Amino acid sequence: MTPVVQLDEMVRTYFTGEVEVPAVRGVSLSVEAGEFVAIMGASGSGKSTLMNTIGCLDRPTAGRYQLNGVDVGGLNRDELADLRNQEIGFVFQGFNLLARTSALENVELPLLYARPTLGRREQKERAARALALVGLEDRAGHHPNQLSGGQQQRVAIARALVNEPRLLLADEPTGNLDTKTSLEIMGIFQDLNGQGMTIIMVTHELDIARYCRRQVVMRDGRLVSDQAVRDRLMASGELDRLRQEHQAMNLSP
After folding, report:
1. DSSP code, position 122
2. Cβ(110)–Cβ(123) below 8 Å
3. Domains of the chain with CATH codes
4. Per-residue model confidence as pLDDT tens digits over 28-72
5. How many CB atoms lie within 10 A of CB 136?
6. pLDDT digits (tens, 9 = 90+) for 230-246
7. Whole-angstrom distance, CA of residue 55 vs CA of residue 202
């Protein structure tokens, strides 16, 4: 089976004046369909550059990148945008929701660029299904300022899913959330992964990475570790534990 992501000796170098800044140095990485991968590393390790390349937001300086068997390096800007819109869903640390727009309308936004163009009714139906996937069907008419941080991130996840992508990219998706809400979001990711969604997530939090199935660690632009998660955590179990702790605290004199 063709990997969803295939990087072969990928290099990305930036130039500041006459100074070369190597961000990624010869990374080879294969991600199969249905994997849940955490990309980790300190600031400046190259993980964000790697994620931007996988998301077709940036191009390699050298090496090869194939997304679902398509050689990304041979695509022009419009072809790259079409591939990105059709194949990839993005979730960011900042929710990036339009303030004066309902949850349903925020989720519909990627469908405005879909090819072929969808009818208005189908757009609403698909957006409603995406909201139902993250448990927010009853908040479809609410604006972002009427939603909690966790609910806003759920809307952002629904927006990423509405085009039915094969790959979901999440960049520090729990960075702005408290512990309980972070676990709820990781629970959603685990459920989606259980349904077959391929997920790649950038995080600097080891505890969050343990909810994934595989951890990739970068340092100085190079991949230094790639291993399966041995002691994988399940978000639902951790949430139950937190609730029990909170109940015990409330009951204590």
Report:
1. H
2. no
3. 5-251 (3.40.50.300)
4. 999 999 999 999 999 889 999 999 999 999 889 999 999 999 999
5. 22
6. 989 999 888 888 888 87
7. 12
Q: Which among 111, 201, 95 is positioned nearest to 164, based on CA atoms?
A: 111
Residues 6+ apart with CB under 8 A from 116: none
pLDDT value for 251: 58
| Residue 162: both structure tokens together | 């509405």
Q: What is the pTM of this model?
A: 0.92
φ, ψ at 182 (rounded to 5°): -60, -40
Return the closest-CA partner of residue 182 out of 208, 155, 201: 208
> What tokens does 26 get?
């010869």
Give the residues across from 5 on adjacent strands: 31, 67
**CA contacts within 13 A on the Cβ side of 123:** 17
Identity of residue 85: N
C-alpha torsion sign, points 164, 196, 233, 199: negative
* Residue 155 DSSP SS3: helix
Task: Write down the pLDDT at residue 30.
Answer: 97
Cα–Cα nearest to 212, from 62, 85, 36: 36
Yes or no: say if 174 and 95 are a contact pair by the CB < 8 Å rule: no
**Burial, 12: exposed, middle or buried (Cβ in 10 Å; 0-12, 13-18, 19+)?**
buried
Band of pLDDT at residue 130, cut at 50, 70 and 90: very high
Residue with tokens 């727009």: 101
- What tokens does 140 get? 């479809």
The rounded distance, in Å, linking the Cα atoms of 241 and 252 is 17
What residue type is 131 in one-letter code?
Answer: L
Query: Cα 178 from chain centroid?
Result: 18
Tokens of 109: 């936004």
